[in-house]
Amino acid sequence: MLNRRTLLATASAAALAAPRVSRAQPATPGVTATEIKIGNIMPYSGPASAYGVIGRLEQVYFRVLNEAGGIAGRKINYITYDDGYSPPKTVEQARRLVEQDRVAFLFNTLGTPTNSAIVRYVNQRKVPHLFLSTGADKWGHYQETPWTIGWQPSYRTEAQIYMKHLLEQRPDAKLALLYQNDDFGKDYIVGVRDILGDRFERTVRAVSHEVTDPTVDSQIVSLQASGSDAMLTATTPKFAAQAIRKMHDIGWKPPLHYLTNVSVSVAAVMQPAGPEKGVGIITSAYIKDPTDPGWRDDAGMKEWRGFMQRHMPDADQTDVNYPFAYGVSKTMEHVLRQCGNDLSRENVMKQATNLRNLEIPTLLPGIRVNTSPTNYHPIRQMQLARWTGSTWERFGNVIEGASV
């Protein structure tokens, strides 16, 4: 029979034990003593399949990182699925990664409409949604989507920069604007309005296209008929190449033609369009162009070329998507190393939003990656560049964003 002293001792022991149980933290999904699972979604098929090379390089990058010992003694299990650039498929693949594969976080998922389809879901689940492969301005809205952060410059800021240049060069110009009818394309509308203000309605002729359209030929003909003497093409590689080719074929060459920086790949856009057909087009750069001979002796590009030659020798090294993928992968590696041994989702997000003047080998000189809990736009600097027929030639200074 238990006496009073024994009962008190037993109760005290139970009371002491209880807090230890309540403080025990559940294991982070996707993280074990030997592994970190990272999820990715890419358009390996469909209308934006030119971007699939980004996911392919990332697969190789993390394999090479594993061969060198991994991160904090853990190997990276990089799981990437195809969504065909179809938002419903993106939702399906995101749920598969989070609920079945139980990845620690999502990394560099590609596309504005596709990421828009999953952003609410991943934020409700508090899954880090890191360094998206899209420049939609809304990925910087940390108050609304605190678990989602972009990487590349904002499309809205990019459009502002083009319009400032346009007003400097041709203050009375009429602008033709071809844009993809989704959040990606509409960011350019907003950026143009930011600068033109009340002049927008009088001076801009905007025509959209759907991502499922076979061509944008009719849109180009319509824009030519508007009498515009400047052009802004805000669409993905397939349609950008079509637009450049059609404009040349119908003899329409506005004095100024701006092209979104997500569609400047020599391999995926300029070569298919016909390199001579886009001479004079202006874009904004933040990644070093692999076709630019000025980077021949650059240390960062030597590092990238060495990686490509050793691990992806058959890849087309004129495709700027490869140095992009290398740069964003480098950023992800840095965040993981900065996490130390705490790979909880909360700490991964904390470290991703605490980057200070991070130098990336494939970014233009002077451009750094910076984030904070109130800055979810890691790259804010760009430099204008002009297509010569063989490469993108930079001009002017590095531009720090664009104030309205």
From TrEMBL:
What family, per the record?
Belongs to the leucine-binding protein family.
Protein name in the entry: ABC transporter, substrate-binding protein (Cluster 4, leucine/isoleucine/valine/benzoate)
Which parts of the sequence belong to the Leucine-binding protein domain? 35-388
Domain of life assignment: Bacteria
Can you name the source organism? Answer: uncultured Acetobacteraceae bacterium
PROSITE patterns according to UniProt: TAT
**One protein family per Pfam:** Peripla_BP_6
Keywords (alphabetical) are:
Signal
